[in-house]
Amino acid sequence: MEFPTSIPNRLYGRRRGHKLRPRQELLLTEALPRMRFAGLDFAAGASQTWLEVGFGGGEHTLALMAANPDTAIIASEVYEHGLCSLLTQIIPDGQEATAPIPARLRLWPEDARALLLSLPEASLDRMFLMFPDPWPKARHTKRRFVHPEILPIVARVLKPGAIWRIASDDPTYQGWVEEVLRPSPLFRGAEPARARPPGWPPTRYEAKAIEAGRTPLYWEWVRV
Fold first, then answer.
1. Between 2 and 122, whose confidence is greater?
2. Is residue 132 part of a domain?
3. Which of 63, 64, 111, 175 is packed most tightly, with the most Cβ within 10 A?
4. How confident is the model at residue 13 (pLDDT cuts 50, 70, 90)?
5. Range of weakest confidence among 10-24, 43-57, 106-120, 135-149
């Protein structure tokens, strides 16, 4: 399976914001390569294997890891400050090249679609897409991760019965999720919850949305 030629060769915007501090540079050059996903060997013996697409600041990923120590988690994020935010909470200052890394966590700092294409068929038990960039303008719909041409790529790596959790506070994206996923024969799901369900760790983006008066929606889609 390959990227459909009708969708952009990347979905994300910028990779770097303001200038990185020396500690952040060390995290990216010394710690990140040691934690970079290079295959599913790290998941051997794990109860399940999960993937988070676009982990932002990493708080959702770290909460999943703490609550599910027997689960192997692949966390994908291209924004360098987000990667540094997560790594800062794992790697002690001054030990970027030497500190032990979590046995059940690996990071993917590239386009998540490339990762999905590289994974074996039916290799994931759960996937998470928490508050993705909504790309709200109509001309940008092809940059949304939830897209009709991406669904088969996602479905290929999810086991039958695997769960895909999606949360969004953007009304346009909320409608788009329903438009794209509701009629798909690859997934089935109940109506979205309007309050974060039990077992869903909070994120900073959710907090910002609620503070701004927006109502997030929370979906669980099941791979048919």
1. 122
2. yes
3. 64
4. low
5. 10-24
pLDDT of residue 18: 78
Q: Which amino acid is at 203?
A: T
Within-domain flag for 17: no
pLDDT for the residue numbered 136: 79
Q: In this structure, is residue 2 part of a structural domain?
A: no
Q: Which residue has the tokens 């109509």?
A: 138
The predicted pLDDT at position 1 comes to 62
Q: Encoding tokens for residue 150?
A: 């991406």
Neighbours of 5 (CB within 10 A): 7
The sign of the dihedral angle between the CA atoms of 165, 198, 193, 161 is positive
The CATH number for 63's domain is 3.40.50.150
Residue 164: which domain range? 22-223
**Residues carrying an active site annotation:** 133
Residues whose CB is less than 8 angstroms from the CB of residue 30 and which lie 6 or more positions away in sequence, other chains included: 96, 97
| Domains identified in the chain, total number | 1
